[in-house]
Amino acid sequence: xxxxKGNRKGAGGGAGTSAARARLLxxxxxxxxxxxxxxxxxxxxxxxxxxxxxxxxRHFAGKEELVLACLDQVDQGMRAGVAAAVRDGGPSAxxxxxxxxxxxxEGIRSEGFRGCAFLNAAVEYPDPDHPVHQAVLAHxxxxxxxxxxxxxxxxxxxxxxAGLHFVMLxxxxxxxxxxxxxxxxxATFLLGVDGVLESxxxxxKREK
Length: 208
Fold this sequence. Notes:
9 helices
């Protein structure tokens, strides 16, 4: 992942510093996702990461900066996963869209799944001007633009409505996936994506 906005390297740098920062990020990301951001204090993170408070503040100005770095790490993982799905999904644009959808269902079916980390963060930081909320919006804009571009390749023309449809299907699946049977939710989501693709493919044929 990138260093994140505003993160500062510890004095002296080195492997020990990098390892401590990685432990802090991994620990905070895990606990924030499992239990909520506001519910977890700095002392808990420091204890489980096995570092001192001074070490934490050498890398992050405070909890908010740590939250932003955690979200940045999740964002980078999502971008890498989507890129790999598109690259390896198949020869056609429709194959790429289905591969992205399958990548999403892998997360839904994973152990400890608790919904979308970004939607969860938005609930805890509802102020649209807050940096955490802004990070959520930036991630969602990237995802919307990515799937809309893929769907436009399927349609052979702009596909803004189809992109919004895909994102809404994804949001619903992410919410339902931690409340009911993830296998059923995943299957329903994939079926919905197939419906979006079939609609675009039929429209393209009609207009040829």
